[in-house]
Design brief:
5-stranded antiparallel sheet, alpha+beta, 14 helices
Length: 461
């Protein structure tokens, strides 16, 4: 914040509707905390917005004083882009209102909401929008990067269900972006990250789901990994779109339905969610139990909101996290063997390798229909490395990068922008593929000076 006068700070605080937090304030460290403890940047000022008008004032202040600007929604992004050093953090986390119109099947969602907030509001009416799998994730970052989870095979990605967005642009204008109004901006928002402005309200179309779904876990011993994963690939290639089955390789946590003999040992987990009639789902998932000899199972009918929170205990804030990710159009035997090899050498007990089976509705839009272009992806592999001490940074990151490099020959290219870490800016262009040139032109139109650059940045043409 060099060059900023105290009088200018005081003037901004006087006209700003929310709280302005400075480094000397007692709650500064608490407010600047984000999910990934590896990221420890220190903004010069935090503007905690309570309205779209607050966002306009913060953007104008940052632009007029040439401040580095970062934007925080849920603060869950793996790359820690919510934080910047010495600049202005525009904090949206207090804007948490969700309005549901059950008759029109629409929801208006503010950008500080987490997935838990959205699910709680929509499921009161037996409605849902497809979102991610960790309820503490912010809806804003998830949506702007694409968004996929348990319902995506049936209902598409989160961006496929976005109807409109209210946006504050770099010049301080408030714009409604939709198919009918500012359609090019609306195209770019659906996958373009935070490059084109700050969304102050999302409008989503909703679908009848739940409130109860058949869901849960089937756990197999690690020595059966090749059989289980190979059959998982064959099964998901033709599974109905109501059924999502994901594979997780990790050390078994001390879950009550698992025998103590496997606690802390490598296991292969099939995570299941069926969005249709549970009785039909039971018949569909029966073959999964025959992929090997399970060491434990916890599958049943439960509220969707409960299943959406099932993995939260493994993803609590405050740990150090590093991810590496690939898209696949198919999983070859060599790719499976490589995954098994590295699943046997996980650097900590908290690490995991997951393979999300998507496809179906996520592949229906054309590759250039939105900014997100990886519509050929049938599987997304994420190497999630998690640990507690900075002393383990080098070892854990090296393991993830090595696994990433070994699996790269089998991947289909592209990337899921929400899974890119802070050191992967060189992958941004390849992540967007054929839409990147159009995105650069859009950036030139709406943010020619790259005010919004603390992100997986798209540089103006």
């Amino acid at each position: 914040m060099k060059g900023l006068q105290q009088s200018q700070v005081d003037s901004f605080k006087a006209e700003f509707g929310g709280d302005v937090i400075l480094p000397q304030d007692s709650n500064y460290d608490e407010v600047r905390q984000i999910w990934n403890a590896m990221i420890d940047r220190k903004p010069g000022m935090i503007a905690r917005c309570t309205s779209a008008e607050d966002v306009v004032k913060a953007v104008n202040f940052g632009r007029e004083h040439e401040l580095l600007i970062s934007v925080r929604g849920g603060g869950h992004n793996i790359a820690g882009k919510a934080l910047c050093d010495d600049g202005l953090m525009i904090d949206l986390s207090l804007m948490k209102q969700v309005k549901v119109d059950p008759d029109k099947r629409l929801a208006l969602v503010e950008p500080g909401c987490t997935l838990e907030d959205v699910d709680a509001a929509t499921q009161k009416h037996g409605l849902a929008v497809p979102v991610g799998i960790n309820s503490t994730t912010g809806i804003a970052g998830l949506t702007l990067g694409g968004g996929f989870g348990w319902l995506s095979r049936k209902l598409g990605m989160t961006i496929d269900n976005l109807v409109s967005a209210n946006v504050v642009t770099a010049d301080g204008r408030q714009i409604l972006a939709s198919q009918a109004n500012e359609p090019e901006l609306f195209w770019g928002l659906r996958g373009g990250g935070g490059n084109f402005g700050i969304v102050t309200q999302f409008e989503f179309k909703l679908h009848s789901v739940g409130p109860d779904v058949l869901s849960g876990l089937i756990v197999f011993p690690f020595e059966q990994a090749k059989s289980v994963i190979s059959q998982f690939v064959n099964f998901t290639a033709s599974a109905p779109d109501d059924l999502s089955v994901w594979m997780v390789a990790r050390k078994a946590p001390p879950l009550p339905f698992l025998p103590e003999s496997v606690h802390g040992k490598e296991v292969i987990v099939l995570a299941i969610c069926y969005a249709g009639d549970p009785a039909d789902g039971e018949k569909l998932i029966a073959p999964l139990r025959q992929f090997g000899t399970p060491v434990g199972e916890h599958v049943g009918v439960q509220p969707l909101v409960a299943w959406q929170q099932a993995f939260d205990p493994l993803l609590t804030p405050g740990s150090r996290n590093y991810w590496k990710s690939h898209n696949f159009t198919q999983l070859s035997e060599a790719a499976i063997d490589t995954a098994i090899e590295y699943a046997g050498t996980l650097p900590t007990e908290q690490c995991e390798i997951f393979i999300a089976s998507i496809g179906c509705a996520t592949c229906l839009p054309a590759a250039d229909a939105m900014a997100y272009s990886a519509r050929d992806a049938q599987y997304v592999l994420n190497v999630h490395v998690r640990w507690e001490s900075a002393d383990d940074d080098k070892r854990c990151i090296a393991w993830a990068r090595e696994f990433f490099d070994k699996t790269k020959p089998f991947a289909s290219g592209g990337a899921y922008i929400n899974f890119l870490t802070d050191d992967e800016s060189e992958r941004t262009e390849s992540a967007y593929g054929e839409t990147y040139g159009r995105l650069r032109q859009l950036k030139k139109q709406y943010d020619p000076n790259n005010l919004f650059r603390v992100n997986q940045n798209i540089k103006p043409a």
